[in-house]
Amino acid sequence: MIRHAILQFRPEKARVKENLARLxxxxxxxxxxxxxxxxxPEAALTGYFLQGxxxxxxxxxxxxxELLSGVHRAVGWEGLLDVVxxxxxxxxxxxxxxxxxxxxxxxxxxxxxxxxLPTYGVFDEERYLARGRQVEAFNTxxxxxxxxxxxxxWHSITAAIAALDGAEAIYVPAASPARGFQGERPENxxxxxxxxRAVAAEHGVYxxxxxxxxxxxxTGAARLHALKYAGLPVExxxxxxxxxxxxxxxxxxxxxxxxxxxKTAYDVLxxxxxxxxRVGMATMAMVAIGCTICRGCQLDTCHVGxxxxxxxxxxxxxHGLKRFVPQDLDxxxxxxxRFFEAKGEALRELVAALGARSLRELRGRVDLLYQRxxxxxxxxxxxxxxxxxxxxxxxxxAHVLRKPLNQLTRTITEVVMGAYGEGSRKLVFQEGPVNxxxxxxxxxLAGEIARRRLYGRGFDAEVELRFDAGSVAGNGLAAFNLEGxxxxxxxxxxxxxxxxxxxxxxxxxxxxxxxxxxxxxxxGKSFAYGAIGGLLIVEGVADSRFCxxxxxxxxxxxxxxxxxxxxxxxxxxARAQAKGFAFxxxxxxxxxxxxxxxxxxxxxxxxxxxxxxxxxxxxxxxxAMKRRLAKGAKVAVKPLDLRGIEDVRExxxxxxxxxxxxxxxxxxxxxxxxxxxxxxxxxxxxxxNQQVEQGVxxx
Length: 699
Known about the structure:
By secondary structure, the chain is of the alpha/beta class. The protein is built from 20 helices and 24 strands. The chain is globular, with a radius of gyration of 28 Å. Residues 217-225 and 690-699 have low confidence and may be disordered. InterPro entries: Aldolase_TIM (IPR013785), C-N_Hydrolase (IPR003010), Glu_synth_asu_C (IPR002489), Glu_synth_asu_C_sf (IPR036485), Glu_synthdom (IPR002932), Glutamate_Synthase (IPR051394). Pfam families: Glu_synthase (PF01645), GXGXG (PF01493).
């Protein structure tokens, strides 16, 4: 007989330290009962609904073991203790909803990654996480067991696989929101009981279920600093975009959508006159269904039932709300219908008053606008200047036709999807040297895969795009790259590589020239702009704005100096491996730089970490690092802590693996020596005040 303790509790959202302290208290209380296995819920250390915040709070399995071993020591637990715990896992640039079986304080026995990621109702896991690929049983000191996480357990095949693999018990960490309060217990609790009993009876296994309790909250409203300091007046943006598109002869090929602070029919008309095709009113639509604009969307205290998971008065009382008015779907639909019908009628009257038959006739008619107020303080005359289409657009003679600049990226999608339709699940697309006219390679495919996953058609293949030595890929290579896609270029690439990447791997490596030397491996401006996830590698150098607005991805800049730094010569960017303004406005993620990071780095950096090479022989000293910080950057250069050592080893090992795959054994062997003592060879840069308080929001 194995003594189990099922430890269900409500974690404080995004507060790992506080949740570990509460776990210690509960283990202390359990001591008299001498449990041998303690089972914790899904996402037990952080809470479940983190959305993009998982990228700040995810742990490697070794970090998890270190944290829980610390709890084991802190409570003075005698002997071994086995723990099953759900956590958000970080591994080689990907993020998973995982559960670990730990034998404290010594080892990680097994980690299961959630296979079925829900994307219905309040759930949106696949937007932020990668899928697990395997269900298997494993041996513990008490016997053979398996782990299934929440949604995994609702698919009959997973329990069958575990049982056929010899599992005698199945542990199920869960975070299932309570629904249906008409009976003695919530309806979903009864469904879990029924399901667990059915699985146990069918397969002859024990089922141990542990679920989060209490409430979490928030829909991910914007961070306060974004509300106060970010953005551009929509009028300016619309006018500039419209003029630029007209001058380029592209106005009828692109739609401009505008929103932001628009409330009335006149606001809509004004946007259309400035050049917008469509106009949105999000805040006013929320007001129409009861929003009181209390600006606390992220706190899960919405008293009118909009930005919350609370649905009933009973749930609200249990959550501590003093007042709560549940949303009535029929009433909300009626109010929205009435609101937009009234706006439409008012807009029709305005259009008619201007002598037009449709709103589309008025797009871009700035001649109908004038500046009424604040003429002395603000000159907006440029708003009303006419803009003409280019002369060539008016030319009706024959035009020379050429291959579209983005033709290859569409071809890649057609070829890959054709092979996928025939049943292939491991796909490699290889192309000879590409050039600057081959733009957005891989971006079209990423969009198609994303649509399939979002709309239920699915895409479970692994795709690798390889572009041979001598390639210099055009702008937008691997933009919006996602989990399951690997893009490798031997040569170089232009601007915007891996912008807004969401997962997968992108590697720009040096290519072998006819003389046998490896050259280039460099990228243009704004590499990894706003990248949220993935492993992104540059073997050579990077132009300016490297990793601007990095938001969660793992990045390695592998270029190294060929001679010692000569800062006294000035113009630092000319000789650096990153040409200026790197890591500007970085909010999360990790970056490893093996050479000179260049001047003006880390301006506006508020989260994440940058690991810089400490190489005194080449002049890369702490003093040199500090000279490269942007004026006013609120960051500090520090020695590596334990997490930093783990990060450097993980990032550098990932880079070495990619080099070995490219048969660059000599370089890989040289870099492996840095793994022996990361604390000697690297320093870390991080914000003085990390923005990790998720009470603000998780964007």
